[in-house]
Amino acid sequence: MKKLVLTGAAGRLGSYLRAPLAAMCDEFVSTDLRESVQDLAPNETYVKADLADLDAMVALLEGADMVIHFGAIGDEAPFETLLGPNFIGAYNIWEAAYRNGVRRVVYASSIHAVGMHRKTESIGIDAAHRPDTFYGLAKCFAEDLASLYWDKRGVESVCMRILSCAQVSNSRAVGSWLSYDDLIHLVERAITTQITGFSIVYGVSDNDRAPVDNSGARHLGYRPKDNAERYAKEIFAADGPLDPHDPANTHHGGAFSAVELGNSGVAQMKLNAEDTGKS
User: What fold does the segment set 3-275 form as a domain?
Assistant: First the structure.
């Protein structure tokens, strides 16, 4: 790759991706709303930019081969709060990609696009959208945008429906965990696969209790290696019996399935301090 662009570079997941992405290209541009980030790679340039500014995104993506789009508010919030970064920002990325002839958008989608499906349903990549929050609705919007820009404008996309990329600290994560190593592997395969068209893949490790089916995305070559089962006994003992009538326990979206619209889902999850980001 000559040039890769990463949005959300100052976020928790973006921070893990910067070094691996820089190693994949000649020129690496990272961006976020912070004034700066530390430990720039020799070929990395950081640009402060607002996703809601179309002109800024067009300039940022000039000459890029692909954009890895992780920038957004990573929690449920009022619709008006999410409108700029999560909805308009997604449109601006795909439109900027089209205007610049960028080949592919690799997008951090989320399980929350289908979060109201029940966990007893093992859903595949063709599951119908059932968002659990405005945050999940933004992921549905971006996935449909990706489909539209492939069908009508030829911009490829890989939409990675991340389940929970954080330390295994609750019963849900025994099935939904995506390790950081597997995240990097997934993003690398989303970039290096020769042809993707419009593709959806679940971002989840090789967990015994993974509640989703990735077989429809095998063309991406994503083969996760980590398994959260090694944490199961300890986590289940600590959590005790779960309420089978609580949507947080019965639906794919976890706590996001149970919160009122506009209220934080992350605040209801038992996460370590360093993991309070995108889920």
Answer: Rossmann fold (3.40.50)
For residue range 264-273, list pLDDT tens digits in order. 999 987 665 5
pLDDT band at residue 121 under the 50/70/90 scheme: confident
Query: Closest Cα partner for 260 from 133, 163, 172?
Result: 133
List residues with catalytic annotation.
Answer: 135
Q: Identify any residues that bridge with 124 across adjacent strands, giving them in sequence order.
A: 213
pTM of the predicted model as reported, rounded to 2 decimal places: 0.95
Task: Give which of 205, 111, 134 is closest to 167, Cα–Cα.
Answer: 205
Q: Provide the token pair at 267.
A: 């605040």
By CB neighbour count within 10 A (0-12 exposed, 13-18 middle, 19+ buried), where does 79 fall? middle
Number of helical H runs and strand E runs in the chain: 9, 9
